[in-house]
Request: fold
Amino acid sequence: MSEKKRILVIDNEEGLCRMMEQVLLDNGYLAVAYTSPRKAVDEFHPGAWDLVITDIKMPGMSGLEVLQSVKERSKDTPVIMITAYATVDMSIQALRKGAYDMLTKPFEPEELIYRVKNALQQSDLLEENRELRKELEGKFCFDNIIGASDGLKTILGKVEKVAVRDTSVLITGESGSGKELIAQAIHYNSPRHERKFVAINCGALPETLLESELFGYKKGAFTGAKENRQGLLEAAAGGTLFLDEVGNLPMNVQKTLLRFLQEKEFNRLGDTTPTRVDVRVLSATNSDLKLAVKNGTFREDLYYRLNVVNIHLPALRERRDDIPLLAAHFIQLQNQKFGTTVKGFDREAMQALCDFDWPGNIRQLRNVIEACMAMVGEDYISRETLDQFIEVYAGPGDTLTGDQAEPGEVPFNAALDRFEANLLKGLLKKHGGNIENAAREADMNMATIYRKIKKYGIRKEEYS
Reply:
């Protein structure tokens, strides 16, 4: 049962004051009434009240003075003003000073309750936004980017410096190395942190759809454009737009993006009037953009516009000292999510974890740990459980699994295919062959799951 909302009522007319108090009590609120505005203000403390209702015209202290005093102590506490002499000037003055609403005498109990509900609902939304902002800022602050290696510390130092400067940043690194997390850290530690962070994967959309998603379109621009629509650039106004896999941008989109970076304006599809918007652009790629420039598939002028500052993330195999810390972090997250009590990997499994080259980087490590925890019933994850999802050379004299290849001899794509196949088998076993549930946990759409099952020759019936 939710906690009752606490309402402070102030009116020098004792009869009206007590009536409002009783109506609020009858409707499930905790209400306390004061006929002395001075006494009410003296006893007002931030956090003690969810709402204040006060008359405007009172002897000794006016309602506007009450409003000002409340807002000085607790700016987010909503205040409803009551008056029998409502004028436009008075209403404007009260609203400018921070009043949420005006209630004119005489009023019915139903109208009072209606205004109270609206004020409290608005207050709840503001509180949710504050909590969400705190959660996001905490989630993406530097302290929660896991790792202690010298390479990562150097990167975080660079991120901290560039975050406060409103310049373009190109983040490079292999797939799964954490490029979007770095982009989020830049945004949430920048002066734009209270505005939106909008991300788009440039390789996940077809060319025509990508252009309209980024820049929006005007009604009638193409078949099906039945109304004006803003693109992601406008949606990110005042904040940050993150272009993931920017190397996949088609040439016509590159041209429009370059114009925006140079002029801070662009044209929606089908529109001849330029649209101006203030957005910081961060981008990321796992491809060689210098080679793409040389091959003519990526504009050189756009490359230099995006790559004002470059941050390169090392692959996980280049920061093996961070693997135990990352593993402990992902285990903790899974324990919190599912109420489990897995303590970690046993010694042999942890050694194998650190020896593996992780072609899919941090994303692969996280998925493997999730898969292992779905299969384990003990306090510690064993090497036997781990071997279901990765293949590691265990040392001289030991046998090799899979294709009998040592680290460095296994092609990247082959290693990634084996990982995907083992992960899918683990998910299907966990969910009894249910494709929808497996897709949801893997954060993949069902069509992709079906395609990969077919690719790897997996029979989901074996797991039903």
The radius of gyration is 30 Å. The first strand starts at residue 6 and ends at 10. The chain has three domains: 6-130, 140-314, 317-463.
